[in-house]
């Protein structure tokens, strides 16, 4: 199914951030969101993932198809690496955990409590979770934070495999992942603050 976003306006903390956002993502395709710090990439991904409502506009083809990986890994620290993956596989009704462990070189760490992993290992576990969800549309916010070069390669391979199986991915990142992907710079969609009315201006200095 195609994700289609049209004329979307979004806010963070009550302040409009982006407006008029339009994008489309077909099965088998990836789209990378670009733009400077603070432009609204996280806010847009959260809105498409259904974690916050838009101010206006339309999102079609998202919902239950989405697996979202944000800045927080969502890892349960007292469960082992394998138990974390099994937990998510059960929650999502998804697949086997062995390929996910393999894809992120986590097999040797499978019995380790997740709370005792390094930052990069935790991130690998958070990304491995996507593989057991069975969800078609991955929405990923800065997925490569804390990853070394080898792990970035594992992630890029995992995304390629996902796209090859007919999945799709919407990714906010500042780095080049070496993927065949479209890119959307959000800068032109920056919300223009409404000009102060004369009364407001006077009140501000009252
Ligand atoms: N909890 C919050 N309350 C109010 N405003 C916020 C909050 N979180 C972020 N913002 C503001 O919302 C705007 C959009 O933030 P957002 O995190 O979506 O940007 P981003 O493009 O993902 O940035 P980065 O590249 O730094 O991750 C920024 O101006 C930011 O300062």
Automatic annotation (TrEMBL):
PROSITE patterns: ABC_TRANSPORTER_1, ABC_TRANSPORTER_2
Keyword Transport part of the UniProt annotation: yes
Keywords: ATP-binding, Cytochrome c-type biogenesis, Membrane, Nucleotide-binding, Translocase, Transport
Domain ABC transporter: 3-206
Statement: the UniProt record of this protein carries the keyword Transmembrane: no
SUPFAM superfamilies, sorted: P-loop containing nucleoside triphosphate hydrolases (SSF52540)
The protein's name: Heme exporter protein A
UniProt organism field: Pontibaca methylaminivorans
